[in-house]
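hey m, so remember when u said the tokens were messed up on ur end? i reran from scratch. heres the input so u can diff it against urs
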Amino acid sequence: MLKFLPLGLALLLVSGCASYGVVDNTPLKAVGAEDGYSIRSGGGSGWGTGEVALILAFSGGGTRAAALAYGVLEELRDTTILIDGKPGRLLDETDIISSVSGGSFTSAYYGLYGDRIFEDYEDVFLRRNVQGQLIRGLLNPLEWFSTAGRTEMAVKLYEKEVFHEATFEDMKRPGSPLVLINASDLGYGVRFSFVQEYFNLLCSDISDYPVARAVTASSAVPVLFEPVVVENYQDCKQEKPAWLAAAAKRAAGDPEMTLAVDGLNSYFKKDRRQYAHFVDGGITDNLGLRAIYEIIEISGGAKMFVERKLDRKPPRRLVVISVNASTDPEPEMDASNKQPSLKETIGAMSDVQLHRYNVATLELMKKSTKRWARDLSTPGRPVAPYFIQVGFRDVRQPELLRFFNQVPTSFALSDEQVDKLIAAGRELLRNNPDFQRFLAGLDGARVVGG
């Protein structure tokens, strides 16, 4: 999206008036609102059967990320496994999907519509020139002076063309996994997940909150788009939840968890935090993995998360699949002694920070998956951990790797790019050694139609 930075700056310069975020979240109707779209009420069948708990994480990266994630969903759909002696699709064992930015379009669409994603998602989003529609809206002089801001134009587009005015009440589809759409709190650097537990901190009800607005927040690149604004209501008389108070005690001595808990506690500064401003989730975690880590750790660890938060029995196999659409393009600046442009400089700085943080996140989740499996295991019922990484680093053909590294982070890709990204999602998962090891441990696992 850095290619649009000059356009975003130009629009800011010509704007003649301040813009104000449209507040679209409603006050909490009942303290707790546990019947809302929540961590406890969400989730698929894996925790219930006690066999496979499958967690997916979709990274950011525009349509590139959305298409790669879609290919992984196709491969999971076409992988047949035996559960309790009965054949079924591995896709149906998905319990949680955590996503940021471009990956949130795929996760939200699947959460809302299930298998319909395989019928129309390519036309609805992947092969649509969404970027062109956004740019045309940004270039409309009427938008330059709108008090609603450019983000509202994106929200309206996504509501009309992609999510059809669906709300989080519509996400409560039977058999659907829990979908964690993640954004970044611009004021405090908090990773915010659009579920009722987090909305409780705002004294707000997520049920009638538009899915399109959450996805817009998850993908709202700062400068180009303004933050999505929510109101932090003050009149529900809700005290700090017990889980957050307990998490504060457990976080002592852990700087990272202390930072996360302090950020969530900031929503109780009602006199100073009347509103929260949400932007691209990739700013605080471009892989969608740390949201999973924080929710499980804040809950008290894997055992407490499964047995108390979800009220379910531990699975026999804990599987986390990270779908990482980040690329590693060759820097053009190194071919000349010409000073890099502002765009190249900002892009290089962002890439360095992104890749280093991604490495740390992947290592954290790899170790945590093993630790969670140990915590869930008993002498008579061990839990096997599988942390599976799907990314372009495993593309072995040099020409194809160069092709993927040249796919931009945008919302307008060619049919060839979309085709190859979908195929890559399928093939990278299917050929992944850790995925093959997981399938080998299941009787009757096979891939069909691949």
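this time it looks ok to me. DSSP finds 18 helices and 13 strands in the chain. if urs says something different then somethings off w ur setup not the seq
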